[in-house]
Amino acid sequence: MKLVIDRFEGKFAVCVQEDHVINIPRYKIPIEAKDGDCIEMENGFFVVRKEETEDKRYKVKKFMDELKKKNKC
């Protein structure tokens, strides 16, 4: 199950999977995890998928840069 951490609210990580929102207890998420990280269940534990997270962050940054260029015209 692949998820993206949207935010943390109290003792929960609010995660998104396509069009579903899932609240996962914070203690089940790796301590180094932060907003925007891609996580996945592996052997009963959630792990941060660093490469996938970096790839998604790069794509979002590139998209935002393109939007900024279009708005300048």
UniProtKB/TrEMBL annotation:
One Pfam match: DUF3006
In terms of superkingdom, the source organism counts as Bacteria
InterPro entries xref list: DUF3006 (IPR021377)
- The entry's protein name is DUF3006 domain-containing protein
Tell me what organism the protein belongs to: Lachnotalea glycerini
